[in-house]
Amino acid sequence: MPESGRAPRSSIVVVIEADAGLRGGFCRALADAGFDALGAADGSDAIRCLEESKAAPLAIVTSLVEPELDLVSPAMNGRRLRAWLDRHPRFANVPFVVPARGGSA
What we know:
30% of the residues lie in helices and 15% in strands. The chain is of the alpha/beta class. The chain has one domain (12-97): 3-Layer(aba) Sandwich (Rossmann fold). Strand 1, helix 1 (20-32) and strand 2 (36-40) form a beta-alpha-beta unit. It is globular and about 30 Å long. Residues 1-8 and 67-72 have low confidence and may be disordered.
């Protein structure tokens, strides 16, 4: 561990998106920017990715944090995923990044 007492930072970003095309696009863009992107179709799939990863991710990119958007994965919505993360110290401080939805202002 570094002298600061903190674990080294990973370059992993988990992308949770039900739409395979969008998920792939996010993952490619992150990989092009130098990140190790892990794609997950839903919250349960994300937990599998997290449990298999060697390091905690820098962030989780998802729209699951908005309950009204949890139509595809109602069993593992953003609140339940956040609760799971909070119960596991390795993941408790991983931030959610919520992409802005397109539209006119």
